[in-house]
Amino acid sequence: MPVQVIQRRSRGFICVNAHPEGCRKNVERQIKTVSAAAKPARKRPASVLVIGASTGYGLASRISAAWGIGAKTLGVFLERPPEGNKTATAGFYNTAAFHKFAKRDGLLAASMNADAFSDEAKRSAADAIRKVFGKIDLVIYSLATPKRTDPKTGKLHNSTLKPIGQQYTNKTVELDSEKVTEVTIPPANEQEIADTVAVMGGADWQQWIEMLLAGNLIAENARTLAYSYIGPEMTWPIYRDGTIGMAKKHLEDTAHELDVMLKKKLGGEARIAVCKAIVTQASAAIPVVPLYMSILFRVMKQKGLDEGAIEQMQRLFFDFLAGGTQPKFDDAGRIRLDDREMKSEVQSEVSALWPRVTTENLRELSDFAGFQREFRSLFGFEVEGVDYSAAVETQVSW
C-alpha cells in the first residue's frame, strides 16, 4: 500500500490532492463539536438519508444526525478513490474517517459511492433502505456539483456562474496571486440558464422523494430539507439574480411542491434551509464571493458570531429537527440559518470595508488568511495537529 509524504498541490480554486490524516482530523473535530453540545431530544429522526454526504453541509448534517441524535445514516455521494500513488478526493477520506468513528461509537452507517443523479443509484439506495433502515424519517438533499446527466434523456448539463440580462463587473480576489482585481462576467444565454437549473435546481431532489414514496420507504411525518444561500445584495447579480439563483428558485419551487405532496400523503414536510456563507470548493469558484467572505469572516469573528458548517447544522438539528423548537422562518417559509450573517450591523460593516479593500491592505482589512486556511483544510491541509512531514497511508477504505 502506498505510504507517502503528501504536499498540497492546487491551482486557483481547485486542490488536486488531499491528505487523509488531515481529513480524518477535520471529521474528528466536527464529531467532538457535536458530541460536546448533544442534549436530550424531544423527537429524534431514527433514520436519515443524506444525498451529498461527503463534504460541507452534507457531511456536517450526517455528523449531526449520527452523533447529535444517534440516528442511523445512509450517505450518497460521488468521490474518487485512491489509485496507485494518486490520493483519493477529500470526500472519500472524510467518509472513511466517518465510518471509522461510527464503528468505534456503535453507530449504524452505510455509504454509497455513486452518481446520485442516476436511476441506478436511486434503486441501490432503495434496496439498502429496505434491507437495513426500514423507512427514512429525514432526507437531506445537499448535492453541489457542476454537471448532471439527466437519466431520462441521457443529456449532459453543465452549470455556469453568470449574471442574467447584462454583464456584471465587481471586485474579486485571485486565490493564487492574492491580488484584488476587477472581474467582468458576460451574461448567460438561455441554454446556460436552463442547463444550470437542470444541474442545481430541484428536479433530482423531486425524483428522489418520488422514488422513496413509490417504494413506501418514507416514514409518517417525515421531513426533507435542501440547502440554499441568499447573501447580501452586492453578490446578487452573480448569485441570487444569476444562473445559480435561477436554479435556487427552482429548488424553492420544488420544496413547495414536495411539501404539499408529503403533507397530503404522510403528514410530512419539505423545507429550504438558507445557510450562512462558508468556504467550499463550490463557493470558492464564484467570482466576488471569496472576497466578500474574507471580509465577512473578519467582521463576524470580531463580533463572536461566526459559524462553520458543523455549528450551523448542529443548530438546525438540535433546535429544530430534534429539539421541538420552531426555527426562524421568512415570508417564503424558508428556515433562516443565515440570521447572524445577515444582521444589519454585520452587513453595514462589510459594506463599509468593501470599497476600501485593495491588494495592499487585503490581509489587514479582511480575514483572507482565514479564508485560505479554511479552503486548504477542506482537503486536509493546514489542519492543526497534523505532521505534514510524516508519510501517511493513502489507500484507505470503509
If you had to describe this structure to a student in words, what would you say it looks like?
With 398 residues, this protein is α/β, with parallel strands linked by helices. It has one domain (3-393): NAD(P)-binding Rossmann-like Domain (Rossmann fold). Helix content is 41%, strand content 17%. The protein contains 13 helices and 15 strands. The protein has helices at 20-37, 56-69, 90-104, 119-133, 190-200, 203-214, 243-266, 281-284, 289-302, 309-321, 344-353, 362-365, 368-377, and strands spanning 3-4, 10-11, 14-15, 47-51, 72-77, 109-113, 136-141, 147-149, 156-158, 168-173, 180-185, 218-228, 269-274, 335-336, 392-393. The strands form 5 sheets. A 7-stranded parallel β-sheet has the order 6-5-4-7-12-13-14, sandwiched between helices. It has a two-stranded antiparallel ribbon with strand order 1-15. A two-stranded antiparallel ribbon has the order 2-3. A hairpin with a 6-residue loop joins strand 8 and strand 9 (156-158). The model has no long low-confidence stretch (mean pLDDT 94).
Characteristics:
398 residues; Rossmann fold; single chain; two-stranded antiparallel sheet; 13 helices
Indicate the CATH class: Alpha Beta
Using the 3D structure, state the CATH architecture. Answer: 3-Layer(aba) Sandwich
Low-confidence parts:
none
Order of helices and strands: EEEHEHEHEHEEEEEHHEHEHHHEHHHE
